[in-house]
Amino acid sequence: EAGVTQSPTHLIKTRGQQATLRCSPISGHTSVYWYQQALGLGLQFLLWYDEGEERNRGNFPPRFSGRQFPNYSSELNVNALELEDSALYLCADDRGRYEQYFGPGTRLTVT
Amino acid sequence: KQEVTQIPAALSVPEGENLVLNCSFTDSAIYNLQWFRQDPGKGLTSLLLIQSSQREQTSGRLNASLDKSSGRSTLYIAASQPGDSATYLCAVRDSNYQLIWGAGTKLIIKP
């Protein structure tokens, strides 16, 4: 079966702009998780969506937001970009037994 | 509050050796535990999932064990190869189905 997909692969923005990242879970799966991984740092949980609703949110400012669509794909929006937002953004979904699978990530660079 | 610790933070061993990576957690009330590997700049690849009722799981040269009472899991890699070089992360799914992540062990296998 196809895996979790993310787009774009790379995204370059300037400070103050907005970035939109997209994720599609495996067909029929309803959960989407977003993580941020800054260079050399660990995985930081951002957001969890399930069945179209936000279920949990990590310790990030409100300019990080997202949504989940009826087909369970998801968008992560980052407003008023700052240099420290440069990171690898990872999306994941849950398969049976709450086993988490990841997409390839979007590399966001803020200049 | 559940906390997950991985020791050591980095490990370098010669090719062919068997090795053990450690993951400890503070609250034994877990749903499952999952081991991942991450290559530089890439997404995470799921290696093994152990449900709370299980003691171990095996996949090829990998064996993961779980001891809930002591709050420990180990990932055993047999006959290590240079291709095993990566960062290995463990994540605990707590009783509220939240994922709690360790910081990872960076493994280098020297040819």
Overview of this protein structure:
The complex is a heterodimer of chains A (111) and B (111). Chain A is mainly beta. Helices cover 0% and strands 54% of the residues of chain A. Chain A has no helices and eleven strands. Chain A has strands at residues 5-7, 10-13, 19-24, 31-37, 44-50, 53-57, 64-68, 74-78, 87-95, 99-102, 106-110. In chain A, strands 2, 4, 5, 6, 9, 10 and 11 form a seven-stranded mixed sheet that branches. Chain A is globular. By secondary structure, chain B is an all-beta fold. Chain B contains no helices and eleven strands. Chain B has strands at 4-7, 10-14, 19-25, 30-38, 44-51, 56-59, 62-67, 72-77, 86-94, 99-101, 105-110. In chain B, the strands form two sheets. In chain B, strands 2, 4, 5, 9, 10 and 11 form a six-stranded mixed sheet that branches. Chain B has a five-stranded antiparallel sheet with strand order 1-3-8-7-6, with no helix packed on it. In chain B, strand 7 and strand 8 form a beta hairpin. The radius of gyration of chain B is 13 Å and the shape is globular. The termini of chain B are far apart. In chain B, 34% of the residues are buried. Classes of the chains: A mainly beta (111), B mainly beta (111). The A-B interface holds A 33, 42-43, 45, 56, 88, 90, 92, 97-105, 107 and B 31-32, 34, 36, 41-46, 49, 51, 89, 91, 93, 97-99, 101, 103-104.
Shape of chain B: globular
pLDDT averaged residue by residue of chain B: 95
- Number-wise, the strands of chain A total 11
Task: Give the SSE order of chain A as H and E letters.
Answer: EEEEEEEEEEE
Largest β sheet strand count, sense and barrel closure of chain A: 7 strands, mixed
Task: Briefly characterize the structure.
The complex is a heterodimer of chains A (111) and B (111). With 111 residues, chain A is an all-beta fold.
Question: What features would you highlight for this structure?
Answer:
heterodimer; A: 111 residues; mainly beta; 7-stranded mixed sheet; 4-stranded antiparallel sheet; 0% helix; 54% strand; globular; B: 111 residues; 6-stranded mixed sheet; 5-stranded antiparallel sheet; 11 strands
